[in-house]
User: What shape does this take?
Amino acid sequence: MATTFARLRIVLQHIRDNPDTSSVTALAADVRRRRLMDFRVRGEGRGIEDFMSESSIRRLIRLLQDLGLVSIDEREAIALMPPGAPFLRSDTQYKAKIDTATRTLLLNRGMSLVRVQAAIDRIQPPRAPDAATIFEEISTPDNLSTRDNLTPSLNSETFSRLLFLLACAGGLERTVHVHYHTMGT
Assistant: This one.
């Protein structure tokens, strides 16, 4: 199973390598039909139900559009932005492109990294600066930007996904803590 960061790259490569893909719907169906192990979400990958649904793959494609990495016209025809997607040539170029695209999307949606960092700095224990808490901190009326007059136009789920992409691209540090609990009694 892969992350959103890896899956986005696979979808971009599929678009590049299959320029005759006719639509978002056809692309999602083709990716699912191929049963790529990176799109497995449960089980051992023996049945189609073990893989991402077409609607989940379409959501990934829409995220690529929001990030400005693909364009989708009124007929749902898909094109890479820029054509040929030179940023797919290396891990370094891909990370840099995702970092820039994610920062731009956050900024355009009223969530600049300056605001994110300020929110992280305000969060004190016992609260932890996870995506939901950062989003809540930025979204409180006292912390909305009066200078920018921008109210965030992202939901918590999308915000979390964008922070994850930014961390994968090297734009944020992401620390994962493992907690253990006793079972039973």
